[in-house]
Amino acid sequence: MNTSALTCWVVTDGKVGMEIQAIGLAEALGIEPVVKRIAPALPWRWLPPSPLWASLSAAGPDGDRLDPPFPDILIASGRQSAGPAIAMRKASGGRTFTVQIQDPKVDPRHFDLMIVPEHDTVRGENVFTTFGSLNRVTRARLDAEAAKFAPQLAHLPRPLVTVSVGGSNDRYRLDRAAIDDLSDRLLALVRERGVGLAVTPSRRTGAENERRLRDRLAGAPAVVWDGTGENPYFGYLGLADHLVVTCDSVNMVSEACATGKPVHVVMLEGSGSAKFGRFHDAMREAGYTRPFTGALEDWTYTPLDETARAAAEVTRRLALRHRES
């Protein structure tokens, strides 16, 4: 089935991590989606998702409108998008094929397909599980971005270590002590292995942590992105020989593992969670990641490409529905 001719909306509440997954799936289907960012007002923002009060008005007056004509495919991601997705499926008379990414704690039967990572526990006939999260990493994107940013890193020695730094969340803590510990380990690699460092902080890293990291790496063969200009994230992934990633983001770890390069995970202080624990255990056991102890290890694995696998499942189900209609 040729999905590239279909229309598609991506609906999220604007959270970058959610939006990336939905756009990545659309791109894997060969579609350039229309992105709709919703801003649920009260009481929708407080209410748990439920088909009982699913309504297109839950998108909120300050968000993008979800008016007909409805698309062939709706890809919704995140808890706040579930109500509008259920409502659109109903309003379209079932014509819009609804895909919900991640479990919004609603019965999966209210969507045509729910895509969740394996470390989530929801299962069902129309639930498709992936190893880690969906993303926009492809070989073509990595190669193109690597070529674009190679001049920026040409002065750095090899091997090149790309460092993806997340931030504190309700499960892990990135503070001054964590930054100092990470910096010490990276500087030891510079001394002992002669590596170059390409560092990309995230929105959650925080200005103070970012300044501390930059100060600690001053004088080392390191480039720390300052947030200006085009985001070099994919370029740095493509140019890396080794990857060091903080543990707080399933997305960042999954994107790193899509490169096929050794991924060393920095375990931060905090309580963690059962879901995070299952995710990191599975990634290690499958040979994608290893803990970052301060040393660089070399190993190989088949690059993680769950977005393409999920797109194939969407295509299969669309073709099946077309044959049955």
Give a quick set of tags describing it.
6-stranded parallel sheet, 34% helix, Rossmann fold, 2 domains, 9 helices, 325 residues, 12 strands, alpha/beta
Structure overview:
The protein is α/β, with parallel strands linked by helices and 325 residues long. The chain has 2 domains: 3-131 and 306-324, 3-Layer(aba) Sandwich (Rossmann fold); 139-291, Rossmann fold (3-Layer(aba) Sandwich), CATH 3.40.50. The chain is 34% helix and 17% strand. It contains 9 helices and 12 strands. A 6-stranded parallel beta sheet has the order 2-1-3-4-5-6, with helices on both faces. A 6-stranded parallel beta sheet has the order 9-8-7-10-11-12, with helices on both faces. Helix 4 (176-193) packs parallel to helix 5.
CATH architecture of the largest domain: 3-Layer(aba) Sandwich
Q: How much of the sequence is in beta strands? A: 15-25%
CATH homology-level superfamily of the largest domain? Glycogen Phosphorylase B
- Tell me about the biggest sheet? 6 strands, parallel
